[in-house]
Amino acid sequence: MTDVLTQPRPIRLKGRSFLALALTPELPVQDWLVRLDDLAARSAGFFLRRPVVLDVDGLDIDRQELRDLVSELSTRNVRVMGIEGARTSQLGPDMPPAMTDGRPAADFEAPAEEEKAATGKAKSAEPVQTAMVEPVVTPATVTPSLVVSRPVRSGQSIFFPEGDVTIIGSVASGAEVVAGGSIHVYGPLRGRAMAGTTGNASARIFCRKLEAELIAIDGFYKTADDMEETLRGKPAQIWLEGEKITAATLG
């Protein structure tokens, strides 16, 4: 008779979905690294403890150049958890693993296909043609939302790629809020707020007191040094106009 208590327990394997930052380097790589250093200098801790996927799809570099790029990022405390778009011959056992099936837009579909080029985006801009279309009536859908009924302290992160995030309180310096939709902060916003991270260019950021280290919508960003002094410390809303972050006071 077999004693079931002595049999080893099976290993449990579970699927998980995590939000990672996708970096899309450009040639020449050294110039791109200079811009990356500028972002890191103006937003301290931006890459700290943040998982990063390196997207090299279409980038004309060889195996050694890719290896050097990963090494350069490592010296900047940018931890590359995977590489997307690389050829098999470019990778090796000592390199981050290949990543596939990344979804930059989740369930959001833009009304027109746009290739964007600006700080924080590594895409080429092309003219967008407009056309008259017949209106289509679709059933109303409920957008998921997350309400956080406490302040977000320094070092804490709120990730909610499914929809809007509302913070009942403040977002401290060194904290961050990342949302697939809009971000509402009923208090001072001193940390980092990134809205529309799943490709939602219509997302907005609202706060009662703008003192942010960094704000971003759909990958386009502004750091504290780039923000207008007239908005500092005031209730504000931030939105995206084309490829430009725009902000205005509330009330």
TrEMBL record:
Domain of life of the source: Bacteria
Keyword Nucleotidyltransferase: no
Domain Septum formation inhibitor MinC C-terminal: 147-246
A Pfam family hit: MinC_C
Region (Disordered) location: 87-126
Coiled coil segments of this chain: none
Keyword field: Cell cycle, Cell division, Septation
InterPro entries found in the cross-reference section: CAP/MinC_C, MinC, MinC_C_sf, Septum_form_inhib_MinC_C
Assembly and oligomerization: Interacts with MinD and FtsZ.
HAMAP family: MinC
Function recorded in the entry: Cell division inhibitor that blocks the formation of polar Z ring septums. Rapidly oscillates between the poles of the cell to destabilize FtsZ filaments that have formed before they mature into polar Z rings. Prevents FtsZ polymerization.
Matching PANTHER family: SEPTUM SITE-DETERMINING PROTEIN MINC
Family statement: Belongs to the MinC family.
Name recorded for this polypeptide: Probable septum site-determining protein MinC
